[in-house]
Amino acid sequence: MNLTNIGTVKEILSRHGFSFSKGLGQNFIINPDICPRIAEGGNAKEGFGVLEIGTGIGVLTAELAKRADKVAAVEIDTRLLPILDETLAEFSNVKIFNEDVMKCDLHKIIREEFAGLKAAVCANLPYYITSPVIMLLLESRLPVESITVMVQKEAAQRLCAKVGSRESGAITVGVNYYGTVKQLFSVSRGSFMPSPNVDSAVIRIDPNPVPRLSEEEEKFFFKVVKCGFSQRRKTAAKALSTQAGIAKEVIYEALRSVGLPEAARLEQLSMDELIAFSAQLRKNTL
Ligand code: SAM
User: Can you tell me which atom of ligand 1 is nearest the CA of 101?
Assistant: First the structure.
């Protein structure tokens, strides 16, 4: 079944009485070039199980199922289930979980569905939970080789920004702490039905196989990052003394020890500088 043929899609949707939910971020891909590129850029291949988040009518799901050994897909909208029964009927390697991705046990799905396989995530994410989903996957250390997702263009720019640059934010630091991120390609708004008001881009995150910090150091690191980015214009010393109650002299000492000026602002530090500073500060406050 050609799920990028507008006539076919409209016919299926109207036969099932389906109407798009804006609240669930339902913009389905209708450009035939996009899904094969996501699948091929996102490890959908032999030896892999692919976790998809948000199937829509299954246009990406089908491309994943053609290439990977197994596809497990989480879709919150129960109205899509009878449609998926029809559109994915030819694939025996797809299992749909009618659940909310923020609440279901993704580790369990990967363990049970992808035994003996490597795992990857591929998705055209609902825009209203882009950052929470990405951070959930990374923070829970989901055992995946790659996370390849379509997000709105502005989100892609922020996620792929250089840590320390003007475009970077707390999410940039978060993602770059857990892995390496790059943009694969951009996608115009006309590639979707209905067409959203902004363009999109596909990014790929490859999580680090080994964590950069211990659990305790990591907790402290994110506390520092949170303080720094909630008061972006303030110096590290000012932000951390008011928000975390650390004496300014202790902060200056940590900055000096890692070769940074006392007036440094956290938002301007590179990833390595942030990690070195937070590790030193933690040592000084223990
Ligand atoms: N993959 C399809 C495509 O590319 O055409 C659909 C992508 S659409 C942008 C996002 C999908 O995520 C929708 O099908 C929507 O119902 C689903 N969705 C929204 N919130 C969700 C959640 N919390 N958990 C699981 N799926 C969700």
Answer: 24
Q: How many domains does the chain have?
A: 2
Ligand 1 within 6 A of CB of 29: yes
Report how far ligand 1's centroid is from the alpha carbon of 254 (Å): 45
Residue 245, in any domain of the structure: yes
- Ligand 1 atom nearest to 100, measured from its CA: 24
Place of tokens 């094969």: 36
Strands, E, within 9-89: which ranges?
28-29, 48-53, 70-74
Judge if the beta carbon of residue 77 lies within 6 A of ligand 1: yes
Residues comprising the chain, all counted: 286
Answer with the one of 207, 227, 244 that is the final residue of a domain. 207
What are the backbone angles phi and psi of residue 90, rounded to the nearest 5°?
Answer: -80, -10
Cβ proximity of 70 and 93 under 8 Å: yes
pLDDT one digit per residue (tens) for the chain, 286 residues:
899 999 999 999 999 999 999 999 999 999 999 999 999 999 999 999 999 999 999 999 999 999 999 999 999 999 999 999 999 999 999 999 999 999 999 999 999 999 999 999 999 999 999 999 999 999 999 999 999 999 999 999 999 999 999 999 999 999 999 999 999 999 999 999 999 999 999 999 999 999 999 999 999 999 999 988 888 889 999 999 999 999 999 999 999 999 999 999 999 999 999 999 999 999 999 8
Going from the Cα of 110 to the center of ligand 1, the distance in angstroms, rounded, reads 19
pTM for the predicted model, two decimal places: 0.95
Question: By alpha-carbon position, which residue is closest to atom 22 of ligand 1?
Answer: 100
What six digits make up the tokens of 230? 């909630």
Last residue of a domain, one of 173, 189, 207: 207
